[in-house]
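Support request, priority: normal
Reporter: lab tech (M.K.)
Component: structure prediction queue

Hi team, I submitted a job for ARSJ Arylsulfatase from Formicarius rufipectus yesterday, and the status page still shows it as pending. I've pasted the exact input below so you can check whether something in the sequence is tripping the parser. The sequence length should be 538 residues. Please let me know if I need to resubmit or if it's stuck on your end.
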Amino acid sequence: CGYLAWGSRRSDPGGTPPRQEPGAGAPRSQPHIIFILADDQGFRDVGYHGSEIRTPTLDKLAAEGVKLENYYVQPMCTPSRSQLITGKYQIHTGLQHSIIRPTQPNCLPLDNVTLPQKLKEVGYSTHMVGKWHLGFYRRECMPTQRGFDSFFGSLLGSGDYYTHFKCDSPGICGYDLYENDNAAWDHDTGIYSTQMYTQKVQQILAAHDPGKPIFLYIAYQAVHSPLQAPGRYFEHYRSINNINRRRYAAMLACLDEAINNVTLALKKYGYYENSIIIYSSDNGGQPMAGGSNWPLRGSKGTYWEGGIRAVGFVHSPLLKNKGSVCKELVHITDWFPTLITLAEGQIDEDIQLDGYDIWETISEGRRSPRVDILHNIDPIYTKAKNGSWAAGYGIWNTAIQSAIRVSHWKLLTGNPGYSDWVPPQAFSNAGPNRWHNERVSWSAGKTVWLFNITADPYERVDLSARYPEVVKQLLRRLSQFNKTAVPVRYPPKDPRSNPKLNGGVWGPWFKEDEKKKKSDKSKGVSKQKKKKNKKKAN
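Reply from support: The job had stalled in the queue. We restarted it manually and it finished. Here are the results:
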């Protein structure tokens, strides 16, 4: 990751001379927007949250910007990415359940306007580097068809960091590195993905004119499994006995250095003074893969705070309240309207957004316009055995997995997922040792939980029995949201997705023409049958 560490050098020998910073001139109205999304970074896994892993770049950028300490995302990859790019809850895109699997004929619905499309309308150059994970079964689903001028990265994002191969199941394996709409075989040189993506970012910034606005979406693969990192990043973490935690620490150290290099590139090529850098994790950490959410409860894939409360901050010379902490409620859907407004774009009245413009909340310390968050309603997740309409006071079936936040209150129903607290000492042995975990044994029939998150951010005191009226109020709000939900999109596997049938590459396999031909054929056959039947009848 160190290839961009220019330090105090003012030019590269034989390279592009540095452009002048625009700070001395009149400020441009449309800012450069750099959105950096980390993958599976735990809430504790940043220096300023007390981690033993060193993150000097993230610490410095956050300290000089605004730390978001009441910031929420979704518990998994696809849901967070879909909500970022559309400004809509999962129940309004049909992606309520799980993630988009590589073999599914599914993608972010094409009738959803995306953030890069809206930014392009007002003159932005839009580039994506990194992990997509919003579907690719047909060409119309690809990043370059959803608003990005260029795309370099993976469609899936959990493959090998060096070879860029991904196996979905035994024998179903393929190459997963793309440049725009084609497999990037030319880049298959064994470079670690964090380094490779940072190189690409530097190239984009060097080639673009900083006098014109740019939207750069950098979705790093790190620190998602498989746990791999270049050897030199293990140097400071030999003392960590747990091998997964040690590898994870090395990966995060490399990511931190990469973000330093991105920041240096922004300064070198003249973007920084008119830029807004947003940093976010896509979900909570996975303790079994080295991540830590301590002292929050739960992990990635759950609706406990450890799965959905994220590391996040904004760094920008354009901020009014630099060096502050924002404790107002902020959700990943809020970036869509916030960034479009900052870019002087228009949000169509017919787009039913779930996000809010929260720039004044972040920059000036004002109250957030957001008072609630629908964390999700998943009607096809495994139902809680003891859930019922009766347990939900006839308002809601508590067998259904759902979670909602209204002001200080958070309600969970159904099966919210793995609920342990995993303290740092759990990583001291050969694997995260569950004997070190703190547990609460709930009564077997429990399907409703209520917490005051402001007073109890670690979800240790369930208040559902003490405040039944609050439970009813939040159940009604869930019911209201559910009335606006669209059907779940979660189709079965399609055998045509096998990379062996597509040149060894994960990529679009669905052809509309074939479907039309088949339907036309079937229509023709049915017409012939009707004619024969008529003759027989005559």
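Residues 375-484 form a domain with the Arylsulfatase, C-terminal domain fold (CATH 3.30.1120.10). The first strand starts at residue 32 and ends at 38. Let us know if anything else looks off. Ticket resolved.
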